Every structure is written in C-alpha cells, then in structure tokens.
Amino acid sequence: MKTFIKFIIISTLSLVFFQNSFSSEKIKIGLIVPISGKNSEIGNSIIKSVRLAINKINDDRVEIIPKDTKSNPIDSLKASMELYDQGVRIVIGPVFNESVKYLDELKEITFISLTNKIYGNPKNVISAGVNAISQINTIKKFKKNNNLERSIFLIPKTYYKKEIDLAISKTKIKLKDTFYYDSDPTLLTAQIEKLTRYSQRKQNLKDEIERLENSSVTNKEKKIENLKKRDTLGGINFDSVIIADFDESLKSVATSLLYTDVSSKRISYLTLNQWFDKSLLKEKNIQPIYFPSINKKNYDEFINEYFKTYNKYPNQLSFLSYDLVGLVYFLIYQNNFIIDNKIFFKKNKFKGKIGIFEINKNKISHALNFYVVENEEFKEIF
User: Could you tell me the pTM of the whole model?
Assistant: First the structure.
C-alpha cells in the first residue's frame, strides 16, 4: 500500500515535490537535442517544454544541462562527452535514430532517446517514444473486444518495415496475413486490387448479371437493376485491415481499398498512432478509422499551457520530453536520489501526461488509449 501511495504522489508532474528530504547535491540531467541546424526548431521546442516540466517539479536541486547535437551522430557523441565531464550520468535525448550511433562509447551514461526504435540501439540507449510494440498491443485489445479475428496487416516497403515485423513477432498479434505494398501510387492500386481479389469479384458480378438475364427467375429485372448498382460481387476473406502508414500514404491505401469496393463500413480500418492528424477529420470516405495514441485530453492541455507560456505551438516530441523529465525525476527519487544505470532495469510504472510508462529491463513501453475518427471528430474508445 505504501508503494502505491508513493507512486501516486510522485508520478504526476502536476504535484509539487517536497524538497530537502534528501541530499542538497545537484541532480544533473543532460539534454541533447538539435539546437542549431535544420532541426533547431524541434530542439528549441523540446527545451521549452523541459523548462515547463522543471517548473512543475519545483526542486532547485534539478539542473538540466542542454547540449547541441546538430542532428548528427558525431556531434551527439561530442555533446555527450562534454556532459560526462560535467558529471552527468543520465541524459534525455537524442531526438533522431541516426544520432544514437556512437553513444555506446559512453557506457557510464544512460540515454533516454525520444525515438521509438525497438531494435539495434546501443545497450545504454533506451527508446522512450511511442513504439510499434505498444501500439500493436493496444490494437490487440481492440481486436479482442470487437471479435476481429481475420486481420490483414498492411505494411509499406519502407525503412520502418523491420520495426513493424519485429513488433508483430514480439506481440504475437493474431493475423490472417501480412501484406507488403509499394508507396508509389502507380503500383499501389494494382497491389490492393490483388489483395482484395477485385478482378474476380467484378467478374462475379458480370457473370451473375448474365446468368439472371438468361434465366426465367421471378423479378429478375429488379434483381438485375440492384446488381447494376454494385461494383463487385462476392465476399472477402478478412474482417479488418491494420494500415502501418501515415499522412498522404495512409489516405492513398484507404482510397485504394475504397476503389476495390472494400470500405470502412464493410470492414474495420485500423492504423497506427496518427497524433490526432486533423486532416483525417475531412476524409469522410475512410471513416470510421481507428488508431492507438496518447492521452488526447492531456495532450490538448499541454498544447494550451505551452502556447500560453511561449505564444507558439509545440511539436509532438515536446510533449514526450515534458514527461521524460518527470519520469527521470521519479526514478531517481525512488532510488534515494542516486543516479546509476540500474534505475531503468527494475519493473516500474510512471503515470505521465502521455499515459502510463511501463519500465522493465532497460526498456520503456506505453499503455495507450484508443480512438476513432468518425463524423469528423476524434472519439475515445478506451
């Protein structure tokens, strides 16, 4: 019971933490982000959100030390070495996958990266982004609740194909099949036609109309009239699709499904975290479409607080970085303010703004919410 109470007290950034209960020694936390260069806007937005988090924690011992990665792995390593010389042993960042490349040279530092990469990281880099495993586990829950047992996972032939494949394997999600497609629209439509047996179903319709025309069945004219309103005839062998895509590519896949007479009214359209992309609200033809994501209410509140403070809107990673400050502080608190490389190894949970962070054996996963885009609005399912 005591452990549970401690969890509630510490795990929300909205509470003021008691100071001076432990050592007055500085709690140094590094922050490596792109402060200059092409991604400087992302980096500076993260710094601003970290300041908001520090203000909420209200502990003068916490010292955030930002360094510039310039969005490349060499400068990420240099920045981290400078932090090491300053006595830092835990770092939030880097932002991008390619920036973690050389960080295993500093094994004494634990890096909490903002990426969602689930394989190929150095052992001292923990990805804190909303990864494919967390998303697919949430999709599994929705499938179970709605008796969807014949799902096809549609995966683009892109750089994150391996991430999705690994997540499918790790989560053991029940699928009818996986299907890989080209993002090139000139190839995509033909591939979706093959998946949905579009040509065969069109031929079925043509054959049935001809059969009726040559028959003497009752009310054949009415039946033929109704058939001519259709595009295809015949069932499909799946009850849902999970589209591992985003933005215009997601819309292209959904549109191709519609073209082959497989609408979201006929089967369930599911996809991955869309960060509440407002352009989906206008796509009435592909609604309803379902996806796992972070806590929208808290996300909206964070955006409002950020805008009120800085008179500009944050990027999505700013929300994650806000929570990571609280997460690191929470784990250090539980470890009697001792910073070592074991604080992310023990099984633990942290209630952040994004949702629940689940920590175990130097890995972070997320307990996510589930939403539907329907009637031009985002609705929470669970």
Answer: 0.90
Q: Is residue 209 part of a domain?
A: no
CATH number of domain containing 151: 3.40.50.2300
For residues 42-46, give the mean pLDDT: 98
Mean pLDDT of 277-290: 97
Domain-located, residue 219: no
Domain end (from 293, 316, 339): 293
Whether the bond into 66 is cis, omega within 30 of 0:
no
Residues 84 and 8 both lie in one domain: yes
List the domain range (segments joined by +) for residue 77: 2-129+296-367
- Put residue 293 in one of left, alpha, beta given phi > 0 → left and psi -120 to 50 → alpha: beta
Q: State yes or no: pLDDT of 18 exceeds 70.
A: no
**What is the overall mean pLDDT for the chain?**
93
Pairing of strands 240-243, 151-156: parallel
Q: Are residues 268 and 160 in the same domain?
A: yes
Any long-range contacts for 107-112 (C-beta under 8 Å, 24+ apart)?
A: 108/84, 108/341, 109/30, 109/80, 109/83, 109/84, 110/341, 110/343, 110/344, 111/32, 111/80, 112/324, 112/327, 112/328, 112/344, 112/364
* Phi, psi angle pair for 351, to nearest 5°: -90, 105
Which one-letter amino acid corresponds to residue 170? K
Q: CB-side exposure of 45: number of CA atoms within 13 Å?
A: 19
pLDDT in tens, 108-149: 999 999 999 998 999 999 999 999 999 999 999 999 999 999
